[in-house]
Specification:
Residues 1-23 form the signal peptide. Keywords: Signal. The chain is mostly helical and 110 residues long. The protein has one domain. It has seven helices and no strands. The chain starts with a helix and ends in a 5-residue tail after the last helix.
């Protein structure tokens, strides 16, 4: 039931949010980009095996739901968290996003 609510909220948010750029964190020319929960779309994170492993560790229910990648792939984790906050406040809470960002920061820059 929880995954259905997450999917519904994410689907609604995608329809109104538009599609952000499908790149990792924007960085100055010549420097490598780091993934973050606030700037990197979920589809980019899921497309990188190391970043996907971070998501599996912290939010396995999102990774296991194939509709999320399709419907909310253009959204950042932060945006998805805002969209589902009323229904599932703990799934992508600020505390969870901090843990995800900490693990993403430990990955090699892309």
């Amino acid at each position: 039931m929880k995954s259905i609510v997450i999917l519904a909220a994410a689907s609604l948010a995608v329809g109104s949010a538009g599609a952000p750029a499908l790149a990792a964190d924007a960085s100055p020319a010549g420097t490598a980009a780091k993934y973050t929960s606030k700037t990197t779309p979920m589809s980019v994170l899921l497309g990188d095996p190391a970043a996907k492993a971070v998501l599996v560790k912290h939010v396995p229910q999102l990774v296991a739901n194939s509709d999320i990648a399709e419907r909310a792939g253009g959204m950042t984790l932060s945006e998805i968290g805002e969209a589902i906050k009323a229904y599932s406040p703990d799934v992508l809470s600020e505390a969870v996003l901090v843990k995800i960002d900490t693990d993403l920061a430990a990955l090699p820059a892309r």
